[in-house]
Protein: YjaG family protein
Amino acid sequence: MIERLTKLNRPSKTAFAAACAQRLSPLYRRYFGDGESAKIDTLDGILNQIWDAAKGKDVTLDGLDDVAESLVPIDDERLGDPAYAQSATACVAYAASLWQSDDPVDAELAARQVYDAADCGAWTLFPILGAVPPGTDKFIEHQPVVQAALDGIERDLLTAEMASANDGWGELRLRASAEGEAWCLTLP
Structure:
């Protein structure tokens, strides 16, 4: 993946990372439910600015990766496991950082957050106590929640490779959002 990302220009890499974050944003909202609307709005606002940057609008993302990181939920037994929401905030932080650095590793790390959320969901669906039997990782990798994440990442990367801000980022965002909403419903 890093080879493909290295070939992309800064707006395309940013759009890809933003699409990854868009896929995970429903998980952040799901974690907080009706509470913490200020945090949800702040994270959504950062993601909007990242999309604007990818589209070529004159915005500054200085320090927004740090703001996103400050929104990472900590373990709170009242709300359940924060792992999905943590992946969502980390993904936004990587996308914001990418705009500053133009480093393809940030884009890869954004995609990794989507995979990590899917992996977490698959392990939750199939909990294993004790030693993990051989072949379990392949079993997890082939679960529908993981395959949906990998397929989404691949579609987003293909779009980033072939489209541009003028003809593809709006469609990319809509697709990533719709697929992220549907995918979120499949996770435990």
In short: The mean pLDDT is 91. The chain has one domain: 2-186. The longest helix spans residues 10-32.
